[in-house]
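Reading a protein record of the kind used here takes little practice once its layout is understood. The reader may check this reading against the record printed directly beneath this paragraph.
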Amino acid sequence: MPLAILLLLGAACEAPREAPAPRRPEVVLARVQMRSFRGERLVAVGWAESLTYARASSDVEAEQASLRMPRRFGPGPRAPGDVGGVEIRAPVVDGNLATQQLEGRGGVHARTASGVTGFTERARFDGPTMVASGADPVMVRGPQYVLDAHGFTFRTVEDDFEFGGPVHSGVGGKLR
């Protein structure tokens, strides 16, 4: 009988299991270039040093990413390859291709064709509505003005910015 008890106890006591290793992404791409279209119209051109993609969830993560969007999305002809507008860079971009939601983090920088620059720590982009937004402080610098605010919304289709308060601005490069 004591042998049977020892065998039962031995079978019940297993060696501790190791935690499963982190799951590797299904696809890893290096030096990625992409073009995004809405119908026939080119709406964005992007680059990333690396991109990971999970097929099952459509989740993506890009490192050292840059996205350039044209100035306007309205009707009318545009010269081939004309993407002007605004360029946005971030060290890390997470998102989901199925929902077309992206979030840049680690310091998001923007620069328009006219030289206006912006910076925020984190920003989101909603693909279906083409709206970028952020709740973190944002700094905007233009040729003759500066603006600091607590958050922003940028409606790319309308080329419309809205800043959350308090907003501090100045002319000639100095905040007031």
DSSP finds one helix and ten strands in the chain.
